[in-house]
Amino acid sequence: MSADIRAMSEQLAADPSSLIFLPLAEQLLARGDMAHASRVARKGAERHAHRADVHDLVARIALAQGDETTAERAWRQSLAIAPEFGAAHRGLGFLCYRQGRWSEAETHLATARAATPGDPALEAAWEALHAARAEAESTPPAAALHAHAPGQIFDAVLGESGQVSLLLDRDGLVVAGQYLTAEGEDLGALIGAHLSGVGDEATRAMRHFGLGAWTRIALETEAATVVMAPTGDGVTLVAAPREVPLGLVRRTLDQCAALARQWLGLGA
């Protein structure tokens, strides 16, 4: 347990009504301690049910755990409190988009775009949504969803290489791509939660040491190689089995990042 988490936990124990639970749960979420983060956030929501940002936190943690039902319910609680709360509209917009619920996605994304104009992830989702909706009106829904689902935008690059790729926004939410296990479970939301804020941390570290802008991070573990690059306000990530040469993983990252920038309307 880090010193910061320990100190915040002690402060919360001394004063259960303190809002320190918000940064505490955020740090636990970033560390991947989902169970602990969820407990802290839910208890906080019980005490501070009037705060829209608290329900947004519960929603993001639930989504990272793969619980879309709870995430949607919590975001809707946020909107019941603050109907124009941008973060909740953003979360619901992406969620409805990924589920092919075009009308609902359009409503939420429109409000989120008004709250944060120029956000490249929102703009890309907005354009892709309208393309998907137009296609859905002229082809069977299943075919339209397959043709435009953001989860498949990297498929042409990845092929059968055994690698996976994700495009994450600045909060770690999955904008595009997917991370499927052998059993077909999508771990994208969980991976995104683990990496929430990594781009900001890298930027701060580079600025501190006067090294300029960061262009790539590579992590080599016993089981896998993970590389990531900044893309708009977020990051593009590629993960590969450990036996895949690092050079190949890097080339795949370059290709996926270029595709992600094009998809976001940022150029090649």
TrEMBL record:
One Pfam family named in its UniProt record: TPR_19
Residue stretches making up the Roadblock/LAMTOR2 domain: 165-238
InterPro entries named in the record: Roadblock/LAMTOR2_dom (IPR004942), TPR-like_helical_dom_sf (IPR011990), TPR_rpt (IPR019734)
Source species, domain of life: Bacteria
Gene3D superfamilies: Dynein light chain 2a, cytoplasmic, Tetratricopeptide repeat domain
SUPFAM superfamilies referenced in this protein's UniProt entry, alphabetically: Roadblock/LC7 domain, TPR-like
Protein name stated in the entry: Tetratricopeptide repeat protein
